[in-house]
Amino acid sequence: MSTPVLDPASESTLRQRSCAGVLRCALLGNLQDAAEAIGRCVAGHDRDTVLALPALREEIMTSLEVMRESVMALPEADKADMPDVPWAAWEGMRLVVGGSAREWRDQVWAVIHELVPTTLQGVTRHLGLLNGRPTVNRNSPPGKLPPERVS
């Protein structure tokens, strides 16, 4: 059986498409994995506990940064395929202490309970479509983080 021979231009185009597909899936996987990691960090904890524990706080902040960087690198065409995800909120997000510590905690907690679940749900659905099958969040129902607890 003979292998079809591609002309160099066709081969280059196929390679670029293949690399773009791998990059897209890696970025979407980063978003999904980081969102799920955040969900595990906050499971069963209230805001003050999560943000007071250095290891949890560091894991959450690292995961949020991974999500933001992945969003910034994700092609616009993919973002357009997921209109339910608030891309502009990710792109404009700056989680640095500029005001009071309470304002910072409120901002981080809002991102964890509003932006992260919406993004997880959209990305999980999009990955399922790209893979030709529904994709289910491995740890919890898509788009759901544990309810906010008030202490």
Overview of this structure, please?
There is one protein chain. The chain has 151 residues and is mainly α. Helices cover 68% and strands 0% of the residues. It is built from six helices and no strands. Helix 1 (8-42) runs antiparallel to helix 3. Mean pLDDT is 80; it is low at 137-144 and 146-151.
**If helices are DSSP runs of H or I spanning 4 or more residues, what is the number of helices?**
6
Indicate the percent of residues in helices. 55-70%
Unreliable stretches (pLDDT < 50, length at least 5) are 137-144, 146-151
Structural class: mainly alpha
- Give the assembly state of these chains: single chain
What is the overall pLDDT average?
A: 80
Give Rg in angstroms: 19 Å
Terminus-to-terminus distance: 70 Å
Shape: elongated
Q: How much of the polypeptide forms β-strand, as a percent range?
A: under 5%
* Largest beta-sheet characterization: none
Q: Give the beta-strand count.
A: 0
The ordered string of helix (H) and strand (E) elements is HHHHHH
Which features does this protein show?
single chain, 151 residues, mainly alpha, 6 helices, 0% strand, disordered C terminus
Furnish the topology, listing elements before pairings:
Elements: H1 8-42, H2 47-52, H3 54-73, H4 76-80, H5 87-92, H6 101-130
Helix pairs in contact: 1-3, 1-6
Quick overview of this protein structure:
Helices cover 68% and strands 0% of the residues. With 151 residues, the protein is mostly helical.
